[in-house]
What does this fold into?
Amino acid sequence: MSEARRQFRMPPRALVLSLVSVSVVSILTFAVSRAVTTTSTPVTAKQAARPPRPALTSGEEAYMRAMWPIHGDVERSLMRASLGQIFYKTRDLSRDELKIRMEQALLTYRGAETRIRTLEPPASLRNDHEQYLAAVGLFQQAAVEALKMFKDGREDHLLAAYPKSQEGSDKIREVGGKFWPNEFPPN
It folds into this structure.
């Protein structure tokens, strides 16, 4: 019997190759069977009931086009300031570099406020215009609060600035979702 076992014994390299081959074939078989048997997700009643977005008036479209570059500046500054604070806390950004980012963000927010105030929104977008302006104001307040850290050395100013920045972000996301619906994917 021991002679028979020796005849059927596989070298280790062949055994490993066989196991890997079987594993790959099994995974591919599973993936193909899932792809073949999985059907597309049916449209839910909520999706089907959502009416199409009404066409924009020329005034609404012109306003949104004018807002788009301002929005881009605000979003970039918000991202740079937020990431700067994170990198500072993880010691990947110096105190001086954070100060520069926060000062630049504040300048951007003030410039955005000035530019937004020059726009004349159509009546249908006046409330959204005011909400966006309020969000920019919150970003300014957050930046001013964060910059206090560089005067008195207390890092708790970053924590105090966070709620204002978050509230501003929520407002921007809400208004931006109306203006540019494909910019903010649903959660």
Q: What stands out?
A: Residues 11-37 form one domain. The chain has a mean pLDDT of 84. The first helix runs from residue 2 to 8.
